[in-house]
Each structure stands twice: as structure tokens, then as C-alpha cells.
Amino acid sequence: MSGAASMTGAARSGRGWRARPGLMVAGALVFCALVYLWPMLTLAGWAFHGDKAGWSFAELLRVAGDEDYHIAFATTFRIAVTTTLVSAFLGYPYAYLMATSSSRLAMLLAAAVMIPFWTSILARSLAWMILLGRKGIINEWLLGLGLIERPLPMLFNSLGVQIGMVHVLLPFMVLPIWAILVRVDQSLPRAARSLGASPARAFWHVTFPLSFPGLAAGCALVFMYAIGFYITPALLGGPSDLTVATLIEMVVRDLLDWPFGAMLSLLLLASVACVFAVGAVVAGAGRLTGAEHA
Amino acid sequence: MTDAFRPGRRSLLATGATLALARPALHIRPARADKGEIVVSSWGGSRTKAMREVMWTPFEKATGIRVREDGPPEAARVKAMVDSGNVTWDVLDTDIPAILTMANNKLLEPIDYARIDKGKLGKIPEVLRQPYALGHLIYSFNIVYNTKSFPEGAQPRTWADVWDGAKFKGARSFPFRGGLSPQLEFALIADGVPVDKVYPLDIERAWKAMDRLRPLVTKWYANHAEAIQLLATGEVDICCTIGPRALVAKGEGAPVDVEFAGGKLAPDNWAIVKGTRNPDAVYEYLNFVIDGKVQAELAKRIPYGPSSQAAFEHLDAAAARQLNTSPENLAKQFWVDTAWWGAVAENGKTNNENQTERYARWMIRRG
After folding, report:
1. A54 — phi, psi (to 5°)?
2. pLDDT, tens digit, 9 for 90 and up, residues A135-163
3. What is the pTM of this model?
4. A249, B17: Cβ pair inside 8 Å?
5. Shortest Cα distance, chain B CAs vs residue A255, angstroms
6. What is the ipTM metric for this complex?
7. DSSP string of B251-274?
8. Do A254 and B178 touch (CB under 8 A)?
9. Would you give the DSSP letter of residue B138?
């Protein structure tokens, strides 16, 4: 998305600032150090230091030896990965439609994806209950048509969580893909067509590779948000959808065991970092960060 | 176990728990407790609004001591304040599990009962006068059911009924959120333990009974507003939730009703933060707000029982029936045993902390 900003942002004004990039970078660095690095170091201090004197791996060993927490980590990853994949499959065609339709329709499509984004999470979850519940609209309708004999369980299980989370996170997938797709030079797929490629072939060999950075950025954003989610799983999920974020809340807020909570947070962060490291190796570092736009 | 839904904190945590951990470090403009002012930390919303109206403004007028409100009164924030030596709250309005954890972490001042008005204190049940907590607003976990699912005469009356999925068909909902202690008392009562023999809890027996409840529960709800919603829309048929809240919903036309018998009474309390800068004002405040007339005014605005029996002298019979601490309803229910939940086990944690963590493990294991 940084690319998109530099494109539009090259607006002819403000050149004074742009001439001294060092100053801007320094400001950003100080800001990051203050609001990000320092708290992170504090967190690491708690995790490896605790209330006791001296450094220790006690908290790490606690997590390592605790199968319940392993299950929670696995659940969290399962939910995050599924959410990312489903969002990508729904979000890409949607973004493609947005990028290729008239500006009025594109605006309508954008509004459709953004309005839920601005709605309170509780209201959204409630809406899903009205739609998906045992006595919800969909079940009543299916029962009325005689298609099912008893209500389908669509809520308070993993399905409910996935539906709710994809709904919440879809904008984070659609917008980066759209931002890249609108910038793809349409003469390139046209050129492919003129050389005899079918529309599908032109898409897969020209448009899709060009839009890949947007897809990668979308996946990265959705995955990162999904891994820390907890309100939607709590409202729409069942007991098997207990995420690490929920446990961190319990440990930090109610058990006041901050060293352990800090360790859980760090591990969650580290596992996300691992996923991105692997992704970077597989996909090429530049593409994943979105810095190297085709 | 305070029922206030806390959207601010939740959305904050949704963006990552690291932010919440970092918050003390970023505390830029603290609420200050200077001389002539106390800071009361409560839950916000209609509760705080009602307290402002019937407690804080009249108290300011009567004493000249200003009351500033802040919140929510989370144990984690109190810990951050006490640890950093920057205590900006004086009085907390919170529940027993939080108080037990805070007391065990040495974050609270013991209440000096010699400084509390004997007459007013005498009207408050002894069980609510704890070393670190003075009960003032009573919530209760009760059997709440949908009246369409269970018509008159076929309604669940006991916890054994709630546990009996064959006789009382329908979906159950029980509270679970990280940090909410499990309803082990009801599990034991359903299993046949007489109410007066519930404490000390037979933990293993209680969890076995919880195992039997588990398949009947379709939703482990995360906040009490959600519970009433689930019941009213027919998503679940029986719920273990705050009875007085359900009565408010009933008054608004929801098809729900409450069985007070067998309910567990638990207090929200006044507690004093360790290192308060203005203890004199704090005791003046406590003496003002535990007054029966003040509590009665609060009970007219929010659906929780007043702790002072003197409050019922200022409430009519219809209002009293709705409240879980009216003499009639009080007799049907039992008090949560704060001493048992607060007892420190071999691992240095309270029973409450240990069972809360076990609750989460129980969810994960059998999910």
C-alpha cells in the first residue's frame, strides 16, 4: 500500500519535506521506538524476568510443557489460516469487480464492504445471530421449504466464528488488492489477448501476477488481525474456539500473572513472525512487504 | 462478574494484548486524586450515570468533597498503578473475584470498620463486610428461562432440573469468559448436595457434574446482555444469568422469567486502593453511599439489589419483589462464600484463580 501512497501522494506540493527524507525517517523511527519498541522491550522484560531477580526461561517452559496452551495455539492458527484463505477467495474476485466496473458501481461495492467495517462488533454479531441462529431467518426459511428437518447448527461453533471473522476482516483483503488492480496497466492483458491468449490465460499470466503484491499484502493484514481476534470467537464461537488472545486476557486481566501473559503474547508474535519469514522466503521478500510493485 | 459490557477494552484487546500491556507505560493524563477530591472507579454506562445522580452529586453537595469518576476498575490497572507508585484511584466498585485477586497481590487497603457508621453497617448482612470489601450492590446468578419453551407448571425450578436434559428439553447457556469463575456451587447442588453443605466445595465432584452439563449447553455466553438476548430470541431455553436483569427484560415484554430459589447472591463492593491519598474523604464517602435511602434510589435506577436492608423501607412492595435482596427473595438464595473462593491454595493462588484457570482448561480440553 506504500506504493499506492507514493503514486497519489506525489501530489506536486510538499516537496520541501520530500527533499529531506532523513528528517521524516528520523521522526518515524522515534515514533516507532516510543510506541512500539519500548513497550515490546518491557513485555520481553516481563516474560524473561518476571517479578523475581535474574533472567529465566521459567515462563517459556511453562508454555512448552502445557498441552492445553498448545491446543489453544493450534486453534488460533487454524482460525487465522482459514479466515485468510476464505477472505482471499472471496476478496479477490470482489476487488477485481471493483477495479473493472464503472466508478459509480465501484463506489457502491466499496461502500458495501466498508459499512459493516464501521458497525459495532456487537451489533454485527447480533445480526449474525438473527440470520444464522436456531430460530434465525435462514433456518426458518430452510425448515419452511422442507429442505431440512431440524435447524442447521451455524452458530456457536467454528462455522459461526469463520463467518463472523471473514465478515469483519474482508475489507483488509479487498482494499489492498483493489489498490493494486486499479493500477495494473490494462494495455498489458489487452496485448496478451491480441497475441491470441484466451481471457482466462491473459488473466492468469498477466493480471494475476501483477496483482500478486496486493493479494500478499491482504493476506498478511488479514492473518495478523485474525491471530489476535477474540471478541468474535467469544460471541459466535463454541467452547472449542478458545483462542490464545482469550487466554492472554484471562492471564493478564484476571489472574494478574503478567510474566506468563507477556510470554504468551511474545510467543504469539514470534509465531506470526515465523509465518512471515517462511512466506518471505517462499514468495520473495520484496513481494510480501509490497515494496516491489511490478 | 460485574455484568457491564466493556466495549472499549474489548476493542482495544482485539488489536492485540500487547497494547493493553503497554497501556500503563502510556498513561499520559492520569485522573488525579488531590486533597478534597476522590476518584471512584466504576463500570460506566447506566450504572455510573445512576451513581452520579444519586450518590456522587448529593455527596459533593453534602461534604464539599469532589467525586471524579474513572474506570473500568480492572485489577490489571490497579496493579499498574500500585506497581508504578502512581495511584490515581481511591475507591473501586467491583466484584469479589477481582477483589480476592487484588488482595492476594497486596493492591488494596483493608477497610477500617471502626470508621464506618455502626447504625448503617448493622443493616448490611455480615457476609458483605469483608476485610477488603464492603458489599453495596448485589447481583445473583439465577435460573432464567424462556416462558414459551416452558409454560406454567412445566418450568425448571431447581438446578437439578437445569442439569436434567431429558425432563427439561432445550438449549442451555452458562457464563464463560476468561476470568469468570465457574458455577461450581450449582453443579454440586444439581448433584444432590444440600445448599447449606455446598461449602467447602468438593471440587472434583463439581467438575464431574459440569461434565454432565456440558452437552446441554449450546452457548457459553461472554456477557450478561448477550445472555438475555439469547433467551429472548429463543436461541436458548434456560440460562444461568443475573436474575434481576432478566426481570427488567420481562418488564419490557421479553418472554422470560426468573426462578430466584437456589440462586447465588454475590456482591459488587466498595474497595479502597492501596496508597489512596485521601483516606478521610474515602471513609466519608463510604458512610454516605451505604445509607439505605441512597441505595434505594440506586435500586430504582438499576436492577441490582441494595445491600442495606434499610433500603427496603424506601421501596414499595412491587419494586422489592423485583430485587434479589428483598427479604423474601433473600431467604430463597444463598451467599457466595468469599472466604472459600479467596482461600489461598498450596500453589500460592486463591481458589478463585485456580478454578478460573481450570475453567479455561476444561473448555479447551473437551472442546
Report:
1. 85, 160
2. 889 999 999 999 998 889 999 999 999 99
3. 0.84
4. yes
5. 6
6. 0.81
7. HTT-SEEEEEEEEEEEEEEEEEET
8. yes
9. E
